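Risk register update: the risk of archive-format incompatibility is retired. Evidence:
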Amino acid sequence: MYATLSARCAIVLSVVTAFGLGLIGPAAAQPPAASDAERIDQLESTIRDLSEQIRALQTRRQQTAEDLDAAGVDPEAWFNRFHLGGYGEIHANFAENGGKDAIDIHRLVLYLGYDFADWIRFHSEVEVEHAWASSDSDGYLLIEQAYVDFLLSPQVNVRAGRILTPLGIINSRHEPPRFFGVERPSFAKHIIPTTWSSDGVGLFGTLSPQLNYQLYVVGGLDGSGFDAGGIRDGRIKESPSLHEPAVTGRVDLFPFAGRDLPHNQSLRLGLSGYHGGLDNGNKGSNPGVDGDISIVSADAEYTLGRFEFQGATAWEHIDGARAIGSGTAEGIFGFYVVGGYHFWPDAWKTGRLANADSVAFVRYDLFDTQHNMPSGIAADETLDRSEWTFGVNFYPVPNLVVKADYQVRRDSAGSDLDQLINLGIGWEF
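Archived output:
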């Protein structure tokens, strides 16, 4: 246990700096600026090297095909139709004032896919959380996704099975290298309860380079699991009832698609929604809840040169909150915004760190699960919370990240909340 939080911050910064400098080595010393003629020579040399590598790859590919043919192996054999992947993350969390300090193998996920045909594809993810799944631990083993895509046309395709509910950003795209910070935004835990899987069927497609969509009918939420902390415990992870199914979907707009803009600008705007009844239980054992829920969420992502920005907001209305009880609110609201700057110098991208990157970021979360209470019921001000997160993501390679951040937490009740230091490593493949 360190003496002060400032001492912890110094140690975290030292560890991250030492790790980065250890990998950089002599590459950190920037060479003198090259002349135009030298830069042209370097570019020509790079082009020649790339051309040679492409020819070598083409030769090896042709040789591999010939070897398979000579061995009587069909390149379209069943084992070539499988696809493997996965992601995971390990966290170390430190709290001031004697709070709990811990290291956690937070999650390990295996992806398995199979192509039945070029237009029928299966996708699945199996997740283990907190290293050990048992009746006396917080860990569990879960099928997070398992669905089949029927690819009929760019505009209209069918998806059936267990999908990720298409709300917000992080629920659909939560692999550790893809977001800033050791922990996911608190918005993605308390407002849109990531990871939120739903079982059902629907359509998806791309209507134009600027517009795509998803629309599904899925098993609904169990309203008896709602409480003052929000809707998270209303997710059904085993066999969701279809007694009162829900409709969910989203549209994404890409205003800059097809346009050549300076500074590598890109913009995506998203709008998603969810509506369904709450009288759903595990394996059809419905709890008798008279109510429904409506969720509207908007999100956006924008890049400008080395800068990257992201944000999402959501509003939830629960009809029947008074009857549900347990402090359930009629209205739940939250948002987060995050901005990052890719500061890794191009001159350092050599040798082992040829594909390295590093991002300094700041994120603000506001999440209020007691935003609007039934008349006559007081809100719990400790559940109207906000967080500032300041940190660094370091990518020695694009699909592996080392993270460090510092979190300042507040609530409307003025509670003395622990400030946090978090360290983590995450990957996807």
